[in-house]
């Protein structure tokens, strides 16, 4: 609170007045390219697809520091064998601690300075949501799966060419739901075969093909102009 967002309203309260706190918050329209890349990042974070995380890290301009994205957003490393929402094991914490010791102030400055403005805005919002859910006692896995669902839906939705079409069509919503259910299935398989890298790679490849097929179907529906 500061003098610019506190008002005194007559009436109410024991003293004949009440305090009113105005807090509108920050509003910003995200760049469409960034929005879609951020959705892809969350898919990769949920599945711990380190290759995809590194690729997106280059697009965001952070390069090698992208390996810290899983720690920042999900509380585990890209090599973690823990289930989503369970954090890191003692051994994983020790390894991460050693890696962080090698970082210099210059590395932190470079990382933060390389992030796009939109990324910093979303990062701040994520911190607020994380704090609120923690105080409400919500399991971390619930929050992360909610992000995953929004990411999958966000990749199926194209506000530029189809502002109302996809959002309102029953079939398109069904495709979005199918995408999320497939993500959940892949997540369970990845966690089941956590220590088998070849199997995980195969699962990632199949999931990528499935998502491309679903996205293509949504775009085709939009081009035909058929009201679904």
From TrEMBL:
It comes from the Eukaryota. InterPro entries: ABC1_dom, Mito_struct-func_regulator. One of its GO terms (molecular function) is kinase activity. Pfam families: ABC1 (PF03109). Keywords: Kinase, Transferase. Residues 1-55 form the ABC1 atypical kinase-like domain. PANTHER family: AARF DOMAIN CONTAINING KINASE 5, ABC1 FAMILY PROTEIN. This is Putative serine/threonine-protein kinase abkB. It comes from Noccaea caerulescens (Alpine penny-cress).
């Amino acid at each position: 609170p500061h003098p610019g967002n506190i008002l005194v309203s007559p009436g109410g309260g024991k003293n004949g007045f009440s305090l009113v706190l105005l807090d509108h918050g920050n509003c910003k329209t995200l760049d469409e390219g960034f929005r879609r890349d951020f959705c892809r990042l969350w898919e990769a974070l949920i599945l711990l697809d380190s290759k995809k995380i590194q690729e997106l890290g280059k697009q965001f301009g952070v390069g090698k520091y992208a390996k810290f994205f899983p720690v920042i957003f999900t509380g585990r490393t890209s090599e973690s064998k823990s289930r989503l929402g369970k954090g890191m094991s003692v051994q994983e914490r020790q390894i991460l601690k050693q890696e962080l010791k090698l970082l210099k102030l210059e590395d932190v400055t470079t990382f933060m300075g390389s992030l796009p403005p939109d990324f910093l805005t979303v990062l701040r919002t994520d911190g607020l949501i994380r704090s609120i859910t923690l105080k409400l006692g919500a399991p971390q896995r619930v929050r992360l799966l909610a992000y995953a669902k929004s990411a999958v839906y966000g990749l199926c939705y194209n506000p530029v060419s189809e502002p109302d079409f996809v959002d309102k069509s029953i079939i398109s919503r069904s495709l979005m739901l199918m995408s999320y259910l497939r993500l959940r299935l892949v997540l369970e398989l990845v966690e089941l075969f956590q220590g088998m890298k070849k199997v995980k790679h195969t699962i990632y490849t199949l999931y990528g093909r499935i998502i491309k097929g679903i996205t293509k179907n949504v775009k085709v529906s939009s081009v035909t102009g058929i009201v679904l």
